[in-house]
Design goal:
heterodimer, A: 95 residues, mainly alpha, 434 Repressor (Amino-terminal Domain), two-stranded antiparallel ribbon, 2 strands, globular, B: 163 residues, 4 helices
């Protein structure tokens, strides 16, 4: 029998890892900018912690993006699919 | 509100997996009561000190070393109000205190039920002598302050390796 999941709250997906990599930030640098422990950034990226609205807004503000571009209730599409939708769709059809 | 970059340098104790931390927490909390149970078991027997001593030493050592490891792992993150914690750490600390309360309640209820069974069902008297009081005081005095740290070590997910 499968073990029940420990976490019961819904998963909040985020693009923190991608945005951090794009801007060449370490977890510690992002954590310092947001005023949290760098472990918290790691747990956010791993989907093991859902941020408060305040932290989510601060993260979005830090990246200069609307909050829905950083956090979402549904999984984000890969960046490549967003940047090259036609090519991606063609490749999906072939696959 | 800045968190020092020294936090990025995590020690071996802070890197302990949740599984290891749970083993340490259980060993810490059970070591001292197990030592008293072991001593009571051999009380009145002619067992040589050569057998009794080392086992007692190992059991009490589990609590002493375990407490040190747990406090080193948790630092002051389980304290109320504690140092400046971020929102995740505060939520984790609150969960640890709730878990501590639940564990403590379960132990107290179990103690009362067992005493009730011994006295009312089995009809045996329970004598609160100096040995029992000493054991209870020592267990409560040592284990009660360790409980929130053990609970935090129990619930915290595995650490993020790279800063």
């Amino acid at each position: 029998m499968a073990r029940p999941a420990e976490r019961v709250e819904p998963v909040l997906h985020n693009r923190l890892a991608v945005l951090r990599a794009e801007r060449g930030l370490s977890r510690q640098e992002l954590a310092d900018a947001l005023g949290v422990n760098y472990q918290t950034i790691g747990y956010l990226e791993r989907g093991e912690y859902n941020p408060s609205l305040d932290l989510a807004l601060r993260a979005a503000e830090h990246f200069g993006l609307p909050v829905e571009a950083v956090f979402s209730r549904r999984p984000f599409a890969p960046m490549s699919a967003l940047l090259y939708p036609v090519t991606s769709r063609r490749e999906e059809g072939r696959g | 509100m800045t968190h020092s970059t020294t936090q990025a340098r995590i020690t071996r104790i802070e890197r302990m997996s949740r599984r290891t931390r749970r083993i340490v927490a259980v060993a810490t909390l059970l070591g001292l009561p197990a030592m008293f149970a072991w001593s009571t078991f051999w009380l009145g027997t002619t067992v040589p000190n050569l057998v009794w001593g080392p086992v007692s030493f190992v059991l009490i050592g589990m609590t002493i070393v375990g407490s040190f490891v747990l406090y080193r792992y948790v630092r002051d993150r389980a304290d109320m109000p504690g140092r400046r914690l971020d929102e995740r750490e505060r939520a984790l600390r609150d969960r640890a205190w709730i878990l501590s309360y639940q564990v403590l309640s379960a132990v107290v209820v179990a103690g009362v039920v067992i005493t009730g069974i011994v006295v009312f069902v089995m009809g045996r008297p329970v004598t609160l002598d100096a040995t029992l009081v000493n054991a209870l005081v020592l267990c409560v005095g040592v284990l009660l302050p360790t409980l929130p740290a053990a609970a935090l070590a129990w619930i915290e997910p595995d650490a993020v390796e790279e800063a």
